[in-house]
Amino acid sequence: MLNWAVRYFPILRVLETQVGDGGPVLEIGSGSFGLARFYHGRVVGCDVNFPYVPEKNMLPVRCCGTRLPFADSSFEAVVASDMLEHVHPDLRLEVINEALRVTRRLAVFAFPCGNDAHALDERFLDFLRRRNMPPPCWLEEHMQYLFPEQDLFRGFGDDWKVESFGNECLRFHDWVNRREMSYAWNLLFRACLRLAPGSVEAGLRWMDRAPFYRMIFVVSRQTSQGVGNNGRT
Whole-angstrom Cα distance, residue 26 to residue 23? Predict the structure, then answer.
């Protein structure tokens, strides 16, 4: 649960300042919970599978991120949190372009970035295996491809403004991963998020320091024109 808060709280701040209480937000790769667990508005969640009952404020849609079943400019904002690293490198740009096609205002992409982050997850996987503990599915999937790099968001046209910032230092990410293997720690994290979410957010913001595990990119539309070829090709 704390791992989710770490990556979604910064995205919530972006949505609150740039979107407010606009129309529904689309999340690509949402799973059954995702952004909807923290966002107060409506979320359209897209994924290839929903293993659990989705959150009440989520409309689940089964689809692939490279071919979204929505018209151009259908959403105020699109979010893709910790999903690009699960996509084959040859298809990542297609996911980005699809997100830009269906957003009216902005798209937020968050993902573990670079070799240091990948090496950290490799060490965590080795830690679990040496203790005969089954690794979570997301961790095994992280081993399939190298993590995305920042240059994935270079070369956009004048119709888009690209901003980025780091999220979650490497050491804190490793600490959270190991603690969340404990049922007692998970209960503590859930209680803190329920009883004192503001204090938790303040603490997590203090952990947003280099070297970062995750990078967050905010791609904002600068014109009212249709997407066309505005994305990267």
Answer: 10
Q: How far, in Å, CA of 30 to CA of 214, rounded?
A: 17
pLDDT tens digits along 171-227: 999 999 999 888 898 899 889 888 898 898 999 999 999 999 999 999 999 875 444
Strand 160-169 and strand 212-221: the pairing is antiparallel
DSSP state of 151: G
Tokens of 21: 């209480």
Q: Cβ distance 95 to 28 under 8 Å?
A: yes
C-alpha 68/C-alpha 72 separation (Å) is: 10
Q: What is the pTM of this model?
A: 0.91
Q: What's the pLDDT at 227? A: 45
Q: Which domains does the chain have, with CATH numbers?
A: 2-221 (3.40.50.150)
What is the three-state SS of 108-121?
A: EEEEECHHHHHHHH
What crossing angle do the helices spanning 2-18 and 170-179 adopt, rounded to 10°? 130
pLDDT in tens, 118-144: 999 999 999 999 999 999 999 999 999
Place of tokens 């204090």: 199
* Type of residue found at 112: P
